[in-house]
Amino acid sequence: MNNLYRNIDRKDLVTAITSLGADITFVVEGDIGSSKSALIGDVARNLPDHTPVYIDMATIADSGDFQLPAVDHVNKTSTFYPNESLGLHTGKPMVIMFDEIGKSTNRSVINAILPALNERRWGNQYFHKDTVVFATTNLGAENVGDMLPPHALNRITKVRMRKPSAQQFIAYAQNHNLHPVVAAWVDRNPQCFQSFEDVEDPRDNPYIYHPREQRSAFVTHRSMTRASTILHNRGGLSDDAVTHILAGTIGAPAAVDLMTFVALAHQLPTRQEIINTPNSALVPTSPAALVLLVCQAVQWVTKDTIGAWMQYMNRFALNEVKALFALQMVKNDDKILWASRNKEFTAFAREHDHLFGV
Questions:
Q1: Which residues does residue 96 pair with via DSSP β-bridges, in sequence order?
Q2: Contact 26, 159 (CB under 8 A)
Q3: Per-residue model confidence as pLDDT tens digits over 162-183
Q4: CATH 3.30.750.24: does it fit domain 3-160?
Q5: Is 13:38 a contact under the CB 8 Å cutoff?
Q6: Which end of the chain is more exposed for a tag (fewer CB within 10 A), N or C?
Q7: Considering only CA atoms, which of 259, 257, 327, 315 is closest in space to residue 290?
């Protein structure tokens, strides 16, 4: 199948779950560490009147974790009381995500959630009509088809979430204060987010998880976020110590390469030098150094300093690096509000609008 149709972009997936999830149950498959678990936060932000409910299926040992028997002594009958977290007692709409459904091997657990997946029902109680229900599972985990009977499979929609690209990760990094060295390294090494399905020989990409080669650490969106935390909080750790810690987080090949960018950062002009002397501050000739400067600038630039930065950046020889700054500013929801009113930035955008497709 054409790569375009074998999976769905994360943004489109969030929109689909938001708009269709009350009627259609999506079971989302995706690569390790590609932020599937964070989908509930994205959907909940689109539905502020809903209460998010995260259920880690890997920790559910038995159906009793979801429900307990109760006796009605008046009517001399029995029923099951659902777990409070499901929100059935509130009568309010929920966003319920059954995370890592592929790791659940207990048939009674799957049977317990089937009515929720199929009919938005728990026992004889129905969820609020606007309650959204979906599930996630890893690629290579137990196939959903092995757990659900055919009549249930016909009531869900399996989708494959496209692994977020390097540029999508960079936008995330800028909006979540990830270390600029991490963002710059990803920009220069976009292959670090390749899917193993696109790499036949694992030796062709030493950064990623690959089922044909046992790697205890590798690059994912999750592990690169941890790498950012390490760099932000390294304190007095030596470069050797940081490299060792990073190797256990993102793998040795990525750790060594990333630390090259750390060394590069010490050779760049400071923010204050750029602000005070934009026309004479040092401009590196290395493309990697220019990318690192841009990733740093997107984080520190303000409406009072963007004029100086634009003067400095206009001295860059590489238009692609300039385009990276503009693209990341456009994707930063807070900064674009004032950047779009800055005459230097808007003049640059008009003059170089052809670069925005780079």
A1: 53, 133
A2: yes
A3: 988 898 898 889 888 899 999 9
A4: no
A5: no
A6: N
A7: 315
